């Protein structure tokens, strides 16, 4: 069970990183189009 919890935590962290990266890319795209 502990291993499953660890894998789940790692998955959530990975997903959070990807979402944050997407938001950054989106923000940069909006900033470029605003110029």
From TrEMBL:
Domain of life: Eukaryota
Name of this chain's protein: Prohibitin 2
Species in which this protein is naturally found: Rhynchothorax monnioti
Encoding gene per record: Phb2
